[in-house]
Amino acid sequence: MSTALAKALQECKFQEKELQQLQETHRLYLQKLEEVSKLQKSFAASIARQKKNLKENLKGLIKFNKGLTEEEKNEVKEAKDHIQNMQSLIFQMEAFLPKKNGIYLNLVLGSMNVNLPSKETEFTQVCLTHFPSHHISCLSLLCVCRVVDALLNFLLVWYYCTLTIRESILISNGSRIKGWWVFHHYISTFLSGVMLTWPDGETYQSFRNQFLAYCLYQSFVQYLQYYYQSGCLYRLKALGERHNLDLTVEGFQSWMWRGLTFLLPFLFLGHVIAITFLFLFLFLQVSMCGFCFLVLFVGNFFTTLAVVRHKRKNQQKTKSL
């Protein structure tokens, strides 16, 4: 027998042994899956029971608001705070259980389970919520071609559609995304669709350069905002003060103010540019775009003001302590 043939036969025997090990691993994998499924059902039932009991306990404590001594009031308040802390912990644990999809996810994905099983998967999904569209904006400004413009708007429609799906998945897994930002992305999807169907002509060409310049500026601001938010979240998650699936910073630390004061002028300038599009033209597509930009301006502007006001309050409270 030649050396090459002997080596080939030996390799076959080795592969056969590996296959047997693989089959054993597969059997063990299926067994663990079944165990996880049973544990998941048991855990879900325990969570539901605990939530119900805590809710009833909280209702029971609320009934004792009147006719209590000062000491009893303090005890009731401490008990309420303790129950609320337990409810918060249960909410975090519940995020790892499968949930029923909302209306939007049911329409898009059906009854598919969108539970993210591991922290690594969660982090990957969070990172995918950012998409740089500035390359297409630059190309559109340099190349005066309706096809390139259509490509930009098509990519924006695709991006915002997928973004709303990803955000819905994150919300189903316990992410605390502000309702305005989700609504903002639905409006942006509609706006990009209107821009995509806008026929070429004098009106479109007169609006085009301003809109593309705005897209480019918006991409720049989004990058600044992304680096500010991700930097803050990285620190807070490392300190254990934020949930794995949080996308924005709701609280405030004194070290955040320096980055925010740099970011705010760019944000407000972007809001002002958005509102100017409302008054440019009176044609159908532009009127619809103008209305969308009005909604985006109002939402973005007042949300930014509310965030600044909230952070200033927290900063003053921290200084007073």
From TrEMBL:
Presence of keyword Transcription: no
Membrane topology summary: Multi-pass membrane protein
Keywords carried by this UniProt record: Coiled coil, Membrane, Transmembrane, Transmembrane helix
Compartments in which it is found: Nucleus inner membrane
Record-level GO cellular component terms: nuclear inner membrane
InterPro entries according to UniProt: TMEM120A/B
Any Pfam family: TMEM120A-B
Gene Ontology biological-process annotations: fat cell differentiation
Superkingdom classification of source: Eukaryota
Keyword set includes Cell cycle: no
Residues that span the membrane, as ranges: 262-282, 288-308
Coiled-coil spans in chain: 5-89
Protein family according to the UniProt entry: Belongs to the TMEM120 family.
Name of the protein this chain belongs to: Zgc:103681
Gene name, Swiss-Prot/TrEMBL: tmem120ab
